[in-house]
Specification:
The complex is a heterodimer. Chain A is mainly beta. Chain A is built from 1 helix and 10 strands. Chain A has one domain. In chain A, strands 1, 2, 3, 6, 7, 8, 9 and 10 form an 8-stranded antiparallel β-sheet that branches. Chain A has a two-stranded antiparallel ribbon with strand order 4-5. A 4-stranded antiparallel β-sheet of chain B has the order 1-2-3-4, with helices on one face. Classes of the chains: A mainly beta, B alpha+beta.
């Protein structure tokens, strides 16, 4: 029997705020840019393994409706970080994926993120050909740890 | 984030809606409850509560505004924190949580608007009561 996963209605929570003003496309993208371990194979197939702690880091990209309530909320946090970096309270969050098995059973696949900071400013553009991208604010943040839990 | 326990044992977590969405809910409640008759001469009786519940729960306007506010709510019945959607209250055992969940979200979103009103209008309320009771 094949395994089925139906996905939808995912939730994004940052600093205890449930986000609802998400834009289009990949509204939230959580990536792990670094490997969690390295392997080097040398003479006679001897291999060396090394744990890479930076592999725990995750990067979250959020696409929000420009000027929305959630955009204002994150912009406030970003402004605080810029104003007093040493005094910044690190962000925490959850990325929850709702998964169905095709027979009505629901599971949640949760990434619990902690130790987050913004790593980029929000870019802007003005386009005269009706490009919708100009109405989207893209936030990029990095978290030091993002373990995954399936319940 | 506000967290409430629901009758089935599930947990409701939600954040307050933005000003415009909460105001729309507040206004829709006022609009629907405008027809409610409260007689200051009469004691608050069971009929007032009946009217209050029937008007509030049957209103499509309030329901539409509540749906917007419920987008910032999460329901957890042991299967993780899941966003409230069309299918959340589909299981029969979850349906008992629907009205309490709506009530909690409405209450918390409306409360900030009316917090100052009691202090502001209590002298007026006393005046009205004085007029209806007549001179002592």
């Amino acid at each position: 029997m094949s395994t089925i996963a139906l996905s939808g209605s995912d939730s994004i929570i940052i600093n205890n705020r449930i986000f609802a003003d998400l834009a289009d496309g990949n509204v939230a993208e959580l990536t792990f840019p670094n490997d969690i371990a390295t392997v080097k194979t040398g003479k006679d197939g001897n291999s060396i393994y090394g744990l890479n702690e930076t592999g725990k880091q995750s990067e979250l990209k959020l696409r929000l409706i420009r000027g929305s309530s959630d955009d204002k909320f994150l912009n406030g946090l970003l402004a605080n970080q810029q104003l007093n970096f040493a005094g910044t309270t690190l962000m925490v969050g959850q990325f929850i994926k709702k998964i169905g098995d095709g027979v009505g059973n629901i599971k949640s696949d949760t990434y619990i993120m902690s130790g987050g900071v913004f790593t980029k400013q929000v870019e802007a553009k003005s386009n005269v050909e009706g490009e919708s991208e100009q109405s989207v604010s893209i936030y990029t943040m990095k978290f030091s740890n993002s373990p995954r839990v399936i319940t | 984030m506000i967290e409430k326990k629901l009758p089935s044992g599930a947990t409701l977590k939600f954040t307050l809606a933005p000003f415009a969405e909460a105001k729309a809910l507040y206004q829709s409640c006022l609009e629907e409850l405008r027809g409610l008759r409260v007689d200051p001469k009469e004691e608050v009786d069971v009929n007032l509560f009946k009217d209050l519940f029937c008007t509030g729960l049957s209103s499509k306007k309030i329901e539409a505004c509540l749906e917007v506010c419920l987008k910032r709510a999460i329901y957890n019945n042991g299967k993780g924190d899941l966003k409230i959607g069309d299918d959340t209250f589909e299981p029969v055992e979850a349906r008992q949580d629907y009205i309490p969940a709506c009530f909690e979200v409405a209450k918390e979103n409306i409360a900030p608007f009316v917090k100052s009103l009691y202090a502001e209008y209590s002298p007026l309320w006393e005046k009205i009561q004085g007029v209806t009771k007549g001179p002592a």
